[in-house]
Specification:
The complex is a heterodimer of chains A (282) and B (255). With 282 residues, chain A is an all-alpha fold. Chain A has a single domain, classed as ABC transporter involved in vitamin B12 uptake, BtuC, CATH 1.10.3470. Chain A contains 14 helices and no strands. Chain B is of the alpha/beta class and 255 residues long. Chain B contains nine helices and ten strands. In chain B, the strands form two sheets. Chain B has a six-stranded mixed β-sheet with strand order 6-7-8-3-9-10, sandwiched between helices. In chain B, α2 packs parallel to α5. The chains are: A mainly alpha (282), B alpha/beta (255).
Chain lengths: 282, 255
């Protein structure tokens, strides 16, 4: 395949492929937690909340991968804990509080980013720039993936118990609250690592769709996690190749491919698909 | 390790384990949900918590399970305060509180009961697998062990909880409304199972709302309406007057 040879000749393609593999796999694995916790909307709010953090950090410290990373982390913590404080201190529920805080913060982020003269960067933060990665970005992604996968695999047993029945888990001696914070923290870090690839608007797709698709296909927890990881990696890498071949934007192609696979599962899943259900009723 | 940790009932022991509750009061945020609860009971008993909705039955069970911190009062199990958790006390939540779509098999749920023994990382040894298997056998759901939990009937789902408590090697079982939503045959089978577990030497404590079946299932009863109305054997305590006191006051407040 000559086009594949040509594809691999470019360093930016090789980097993008590797990044897609890492990010797709890690996000796919973590997506199982989000689907099981039914917390997709909350994570979506957090992903939007990262933007003003990045903008502020770039303003204060200039644009380096570390300033952007720390800014995003700070913003996620601020919005997450802020929504908790608002819901505890008023009649509002936490989801409403989150929605208020993250839209306000997101708007602030857009205005800030335009003012500080990185307008061409704004699109990258919103929709990703996986073709423009440097070697240092790849290393950051690698370490985040290694850290998240090791931690979550090691704590898989108690984490599952917390997600299934937190109260019973507590009576069996599982440190429920600590694990919840740890899981949220890990999700945020993984989310940040996928920002460069797909941006803060599309990041949610990568962090929900893989396991949601597997959820329609399997009743095995192991398959939900590792199948989600494989599906994430497969779609992300395919999208890089497809993007090169058909001249499509790679970031959105990743999320679009995942969406297509989800629709296939939704229609054709042997057990929980629409067609299977129609056939059963017929 | 105590001598008791090697077997899961205390039928073999000289003395029975005691659960002693003294002057217990519990609040949710600033609302007092429960006060003045004092009773003591022994392993081998089946104790019904009876009272109208909102009487504090679930609150009492959660406090006994260590899930709620009491405002005041003490809960002693085998002479020691219960901590935040104990392997010897199993909590079985209401069936509605569980996400039955969760992708997990019957066996997977029962295996969770081994967490106090296996901890975060350790793999299952043959001893753990045996405990899970005998727990499944004890409540007769061995043939369903590879099913996803949604595919079970209500009675079978309740048995999964019981099996997990048995795999945990718990001495005391705290059940929140175990009979709610079950059909008649399932109710009778569950009643027989609970009586058997108590007869084997476990302490069974369950909140119960069907007044007609209390006498046939339990040997002790605690009547509750935010305060403890009465406690004792079903024969002595489950009287018309006590029941009337428990429910009449509630009716007045609702009206």
């Amino acid at each position: 395949m000559p086009w594949l040879d040509e594809f691999l000749q470019h360093a930016f393609n090789r980097r993008a492929l590797l990044a897609a593999l890492l990010i797709g796999f890690t996000n796919g694995y973590v997506s199982a937690f989000i689907v099981l916790r039914k917390s997709a909307l909350r994570v979506g709010s957090l992903s939007h909340a990262l933007l003003p953090g990045i903008a502020l950090a770039v303003m204060v410290a200039g644009l380096t991968e570390w300033s952007a990373f720390l800014g995003a982390l700070f913003a996620a913590l601020f919005i997450g804990l802020g929504s908790l404080a608002v819901s505890r201190g008023s009649r509002l529920d936490q989801d409403s509080a989150l929605a208020i805080l993250y839209t306000a913060a997101f708007s602030g982020g857009i205005i800030l980013l335009r003012r500080i003269g990185v307008t061409q960067e704004l699109d990258h933060w919103l929709f990703g720039n996986i073709m423009g990665l440097r070697d240092t970005d790849l290393w950051t992604t690698f370490w985040i993936s290694a850290f998240a996968l090791t931690l979550l695999t090691a704590l898989h047993r108690p984490l599952l118990m917390v997600m299934f029945e937190p109260e019973v888990a507590a009576t069996l001696g599982v440190p429920v609250r600590a694990l919840n914070y740890l899981l949220l923290g890990t999700m945020i870090v993984v989310l940040i690592s996928s920002l460069q690839a797909v941006g803060c608007i599309l990041a949610l797709g990568l962090l929900v769709t893989p396991a949601a698709t597997l959820y329609l296909l399997t009743n095995s927890t192991q398959w939900l996690f590792w199948g989600g990881a494989l599906l994430g990696a497969l779609c992300a890498t395919s999208a890089i190749l497809l993007g090169w071949w058909l001249n499509l934007e790679q970031g959105p192609t990743i999320v679009l491919l995942l969406g297509l696979v989800f629709v296939l599962a939704f229609l054709g899943s042997p057990k929980y698909g629409l067609l299977a259900r129609l056939r059963k009723n017929a | 390790m105590s001598a008791h940790s090697t077997h899961d009932t205390c039928a073999h022991c000289e003395h029975h384990h005691e659960l002693r509750v003294d002057g217990l009061a519990v609040s949710y945020r600033k609302t007092r949900a429960l006060e003045n609860v004092s009773f003591s009971t022994l392993c081998g008993n089946a104790l019904a918590l009876v009272g109208p909705n909102g009487a504090g039955k679930s609150t009492l069970l959660k406090a006994l399970a260590g899930l709620l911190r009491p405002d005041c009062g003490t809960i002693l199990w085998r002479g020691a305060p219960i901590g935040r958790w104990s392997r010897e006390i199993a909590y079985l939540p209401q069936r509605e509180s569980v996400d039955w779509n969760f992708p997990i098999t019957v066996r997977g749920v029962v295996e969770m009961g081994r967490y106090p023994q296996v901890g975060w990382w350790r793999g299952f040894k043959s001893k753990d697998d045996q405990a899970v298997q005998s727990a499944l056998d004890a409540v007769e759901i061995s043939s369903l062990q590879h099913r996803q939990i949604r595919e079970l009937s209500g009675g079978q789902q309740q048995r999964v909880f019981l099996a997990r408590a048995l795999a945990q090697e718990a001495h005391a079982l705290l059940l929140d409304e175990p009979f709610t939503g079950l059909d008649r045959p399932s109710q009778e089978a569950l009643a027989a199972t609970l009586r058997r577990l108590a007869a084997e030497g476990r302490l069974v404590i369950a909140s119960h709302h069907d007044l007609k079946t209390v006498e046939s299932i339990y040997d002790q009863v605690l009547l509750l309406r935010r305060k403890m109305i009465a406690f004792g054997t079903v024969a002595n305590t489950f009287s018309k007057e006590n029941i009337a006191t428990t429910y009449r006051e509630a009716g007045k407040e609702v009206a």
